[in-house]
Recover the amino acids of this structure.
C-alpha cells in the first residue's frame, strides 16, 4: 500500500488535507505522507510547538503546510479549524480525525471520573464535532470530500485489561463513523475508519517497558511477529482517503499485525 512511482505521489495534488493530532506519532506520519503525495496539509493539535515541527519537516521536503492549534473537543474549536484551512488553502478535500488520548492501565473500578470524562471529550466528542464541521464544508464543494477517523483495535475488535474506558470510546468512534458514512455519502462525503493495533508510538509501551522489550513481546505474541510502523498506518489512511477507495464507504480497516485474529 506504500506510495510508489510518480502517479502515486500525485494522488492528492491540488487537494487540502486536514490532520488532527498531527504533532507526533501516527498523526505526524499521516501529515508527512499526504504532503509527499502532493497535498497541502493543515496540521492541528492542542500544542503549537509540535505542530510547527511537523510543518518544518514537510517544508524541508518541499511540501506546503499550515499549523493551526485547536481543541476539537469544543464546537468552536472544530469550526474555527475548518475555517482556517479553507481560508488559507481554499478548500477542505480530506480530513483525518486522529487526535486521541489514553487514560488507564488499571481496572475500571479505579479509574478517576476525570479520566473517564477526558477520554470521552477528546476521543468521542472531538471526533463528533470535527465530523460535523468537516461535513458541513465538504458537502458544499462540487467534489465533496473524504474523511478517515482513526480508532483502535481496542473496542470493536479486541478487549484488554486496564483499557475498558478507552476501548469504549474507540468502539464509539467506529459506530459513529459508520452511521455518519450512511448519513452523508449522498452528500458526496465518504467516511471510513482505520483501527491500528500496536504501533511504534509511546502509547503502545507498557509501564516500565523499553522499545526493545516491546519488540520481544511482539515477536512472541503477534502473528506478524512485529508491531506496525506509523508509516504503515499512514498508508492505510491514505488509501481510504484516495480515489483508489472511491467505492469504500463506512469500513473499519484494521492494521494490527494480525493481533485481532
Amino acid at each position: 500500500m506504500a506510495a510508489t512511482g510518480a502517479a502515486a505521489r500525485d494522488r492528492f495534488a491540488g487537494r487540502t488535507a486536514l490532520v488532527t493530532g498531527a504533532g507526533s506519532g501516527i498523526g505526524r506520519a499521516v501529515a508527512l505522507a499526504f504532503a509527499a503525495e502532493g497535498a497541502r496539509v493543515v496540521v492541528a493539535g492542542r500544542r503549537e510547538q509540535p505542530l510547527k515541527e511537523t510543518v518544518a519537516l514537510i517544508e524541508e521536503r518541499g511540501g506546503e503546510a499550515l499549523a493551526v492549534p485547536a481543541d476539537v473537543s469544543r464546537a468552536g474549536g472544530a469550526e474555527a479549524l475548518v475555517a482556517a484551512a479553507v481560508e488559507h488553502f481554499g478548500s477542505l478535500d480530506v480530513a483525518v480525525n486522529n487526535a486521541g488520548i489514553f487514560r488507564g492501565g488499571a481496572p475500571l473500578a479505579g479509574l478517576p471520573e476525570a479520566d473517564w470524562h477526558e477520554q470521552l471529550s477528546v476521543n468521542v466528542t472531538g471526533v463528533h464535532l470535527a465530523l460535523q464541521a468537516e461535513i458541513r464544508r465538504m458537502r458544499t464543494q462540487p467534489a465533496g470530500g473524504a474523511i478517515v477517523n482513526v480508532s483502535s483495535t481496542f473496542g470493536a475488535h479486541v478487549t484488554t485489561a486496564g483499557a475498558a474506558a478507552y476501548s469504549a470510546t474507540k468502539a464509539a468512534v467506529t459506530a459513529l463513523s459508520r452511521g455518519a458514512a450512511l448519513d452523508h455519502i449522498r452528500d458526496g462525503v465518504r467516511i471510513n475508519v482505520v483501527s491500528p493495533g500496536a504501533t511504534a508510538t509511546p502509547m503502545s509501551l507498557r509501564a516500565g517497558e523499553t522499545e526493545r522489550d516491546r519488540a520481544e513481546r511482539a515477536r512472541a505474541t503477534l502473528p506478524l511477529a512485529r508491531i506496525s510502523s506509523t508509516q504503515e498506518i499512514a498508508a492505510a489512511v491514505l488509501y481510504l482517503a484516495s480515489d483508489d477507495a472511491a467505492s469504500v464507504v463506512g469500513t473499519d480497516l484494521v492494521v494490527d499485525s494480525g493481533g485481532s485474529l
About this structure: Confidence is low (pLDDT under 50) at residues 1-8. DSSP finds eight helices and seven strands in the chain.
